[in-house]
Each structure stands twice: as C-alpha cells, then as structure tokens.
Amino acid sequence: MPEHLPQVLECGIRDVVFGAGVRVVQPVNLYGCRIEDSCFIGPFVEIQKDVRIGARTRVQSHSFICELVSIGDDCFIGHGVMFINDTFATGGVSGGRKDLWRCTSVGNRVSIGSNATILPVEICDDAIIGAGAVVTRPITVPGRYAGNPARMLR
Amino acid sequence: MPEHLPQVLECGIRDVVFGAGVRVVQPVNLYGCRIEDSCFIGPFVEIQKDVRIGARTRVQSHSFICELVSIGDDCFIGHGVMFINDTFATGGVSGGRKDLWRCTSVGNRVSIGSNATILPVEICDDAIIGAGAVVTRPITVPGRYAGNPARMLR
Amino acid sequence: MPEHLPQVLECGIRDVVFGAGVRVVQPVNLYGCRIEDSCFIGPFVEIQKDVRIGARTRVQSHSFICELVSIGDDCFIGHGVMFINDTFATGGVSGGRKDLWRCTSVGNRVSIGSNATILPVEICDDAIIGAGAVVTRPITVPGRYAGNPARMLR
C-alpha cells in the first residue's frame, strides 16, 4: 500500500445555536445543533446536526448524541451515553441511506445513567434509565429502567 | 430563542496533587484530585475533585471517575469505565443535592475491564470485574464478576 | 506524600501508515498502526500499535482499538466501542506480560453498534453486533448478535 497523508480535521463548535447561559467544556465536537438556555455540555462530547437539547439539560463528558435525536428540558444525560439512529435494519450499516435511520425523542425531566445505550425510541417524561442500561424499546410509562435489554424495575 | 455565545471552558489539569513518576496523556480533565506515585492516566479521561488514585494504578483512556470515589494501589481501570455517585434515588438526578450522592471505594489490586459501569459500592481487594459489567452491589469476595448486573462467575 | 510534577504527554498521530483518502478528526491518539484507503476515524479515538484497519472502514468517535486487533474492509465500528486484549486470565491485569494477551480478528463488512465491548475473539465476515453488546465468544456464523453476553438473535 503506498503511503499517503490523511486529511486531518479538527473538532470544535460549528453552526450551533445557543440559548442564554450555556457552558461548554472543550474539547467537544458540536455542529449544526441547537442547545437551549442554561445547558451544560461536558468535555469529550459529540453532538451532531439537527439535534435539539432542551433548556437546563446537562450532557456529561464522553457522550455522543447523533442526528435525529431530540432531548427535552431539564434532562440529565450521564457520562458515556451513546444514542443511535442506525439499527443496521437491512443487515448492516446504512451508510449514506439516511432514509433507513430512525428518530429518538427524549421527553422532559428524563435522567439517563452513565454508559447507557439508547436505540432509536421514544422515552417519556420523567423516565429514569439506569447506568449501563441498553434501551431497545419505547419507554411510555415513567419509572426506573435498567439492564440489557432495559426493563422496568419492580 | 435569541442566540447567545456560550461560556467556553477548557479541560486541563487543575489543583491536582501528584506523587512521583506519574504520566498523563492529554487531553484530560483532572481537577482537585490526588494521584499517587507511578500512576498512568490515559487520554480523554476525566477525574473529579476529592478522588484518590492509589500508587501504581493505571486509568486507561476514556474513563470517568467522579467525586466520592477512592481507588487503591496497583489497580487497573480499563478504557471507558464509568463510575457513578448519583443513583437517582429520589426519582431523578440529584442535581446540587450532594447529600444524596454515595461513595465508591475500590480496594487494592483490583482489575476493572473496559466499558464497565460501577455504581456506588465497595469493591474488595483483588476483585476482577469483567469488561462491560455493570456492578450494582458491593463486592466483598475476591473473584471474577461479569454481566449486567454483575454476578460472580462459577 | 511529597508533591511532584507529572510527565505530561500529548496525544496525536505518530508512526501511522495511511492509505489514500483517509479522514481523521482530531483529537485522536493513533500510533504505530495501519489505516487503509478511504477510512474515517472520528474524534476521541485511540488506536494502538500494530492494529490494521481495512479499507473503507469507519471508526466512530470515542472508540478504542487495542494492540493485537485486526479489522477488515468495509466495517463500521460505532461510537464508544472498546476492544480488549487482556482477559485478566491469570487473576488480574497482565501488565507487561504480553504473552498473556490475546488477538481479535474482525472480518469484512462487519457492523459493530455503539458502546459494544469486544473480548479477544474472531468475528466472521458480515456479522452484525448490536449496540451495547458484550461479545465474549467467537462469532463464526453471520447474523445479528446482541446482549451481555452477546447471543445470536432469533
């Protein structure tokens, strides 16, 4: 294989609409998204285009929020939380076929524990997702959910 | 929503007490913690205030160690390991109410595999936590633990 | 404990062989590895020495690929995916004893979901690993695998 130089891009903050009183800890990779009043975004976070983060929501370090995700107000997104829009529905990664991607909608006052994984579903207001949970189905009833796959506790 | 500029902070190393022979790979976010002799701290790591990391312990890339965690000597903290102090005990994130947070104490010679999630518990000396495990209960007997929730193997 | 200054290293790109048309988003920590034509490497990624990443493979943000891993062509490695070479086989971390580490071989056209954890196994061509899965055994039959430990679905 002949050797080449890679194209090296830098992460940063591009084309983001911020509300009042937002705090961000660099390095982050935020682009094309909307981050409303009084949010906190920790270091080593990536948020992709068209994402909306509601007012007073905290996104902690190491989390990744992909295109087609909307998060409500007063939420807590723990550390290392990963959102997903491509479920490999057709037998592998969808690549450029965004028509195969699916949406995630997180309500208000939702708490998501660290290292949780969120497949593209709706999560209702006031839900609590435990640390390390893998959410594979819509959550329509407030309560505590944990495990892989995540189930309601008690 | 009127547009504003965010307050942009930079991660770094602030108010950390280091022992002899510590190596750190930037970027990291380390503040107010104590890192003892001959530790290694990999890139993309965050360690919060009042944490103690014992001598010769290695904290690998992408890990997050929160306030109220103490780690002993000669431990291995894998990549992407997340510690937790807020169990959402009162029905959601505790926010500023630190009286609701709980402690984690990790003994000596403990190995924690990558992508493990550690709820606030005690982990005894010489325990082995498998990669991807979610530790939800105290570990009082040395041995190998894995799964979500983590259980002793065999 | 007397206070010392740590040795502070910087992550970056060192001794990497790149094919044509590779794109990398900094910050990353890539060293001693081989990244073939048209790969994409997202931010906050670490790839260690002697790793091979095949042509057109995408390694998304926050992933960690350790020594002794080889990944084929046209793969998708999601966000926060962690590979492992040390299974703590002798009762704890192997430290410098690399003779105790084991290899991971990922075939071609493999899709690995975000936050998955991959123990040192072989994964065959065309396998699909779900988000949050913990792969503990070799995958020899193409299909969809999920859970902790990962099992074939249906």
Describe the structure.
- The first copy, chain A, has an 8-stranded mixed sheet, with no helix packed on it. Chain A has a 6-stranded parallel sheet with strand order 3-6-9-12-15-18, with no helix packed on it.
- The model of chain A has no long low-confidence stretch (mean pLDDT 96).
- In chain A, a hairpin with a 4-residue loop joins strand 21 and strand 22 (151-152).
- The first copy, chain A, has strands at 7-10, 13-14, 17-18, 23-26, 29-31, 34-35, 40-41, 46-47, 52-53, 58-59, 64-65, 69-71, 76-77, 82-83, 104-106, 111-112, 117-118, 122-123, 128-129, 134-135, 144-146, 151-152.
- With 154 residues, chain A is mostly beta strands.
- Chain A is built from no helices and 22 strands.
- In chain A, 0% of the residues lie in helices and 34% in strands.
- The A-B interface holds A 13, 17-27, 34-37, 41-44, 58, 60-62, 76, 78-80, 109, 111, 113-115, 126, 128, 130-132, 144, 146-148 and B 1-11, 27, 29, 44, 46, 62, 64, 66, 80, 82-84, 88, 91-93, 115, 117, 119, 134, 148-149.
Under the CATH scheme, the architecture of chain A is 3 Solenoid
CATH C-level label of chain A: Mainly Beta
Strand residues, percent of chain A: 25-35%
Order of helices and strands of chain A: EEEEEEEEEEEEEEEEEEEEEE
**How many individual helices of chain A?**
0
What would you call the structural class of chain A? mainly beta
Principal-axis shape of chain A? globular
Assign the CATH topology of chain A: UDP N-Acetylglucosamine Acyltransferase, domain 1
Summed over residues and divided by their number, the pLDDT of chain A gives a mean of 96
Name the helicity range of chain A. under 10%
Radius of gyration of chain A (CA) equals 16 Å
Largest interface: A-B, 42 and 32 residues
Distance between the termini of chain A: 57 Å
Low-pLDDT stretches of chain A are none
**Total domain modules of chain A:** 1
Biggest sheet, spatial arrangement of strands of chain A: 4-7-10-13-16-19-21-22
Biggest sheet statistics of chain A: 8 strands, mixed
What oligomeric state do these chains adopt?
A: homotrimer
* Overall number of strands of chain A: 22
CATH homologous superfamily caption of chain A: Hexapeptide repeat proteins
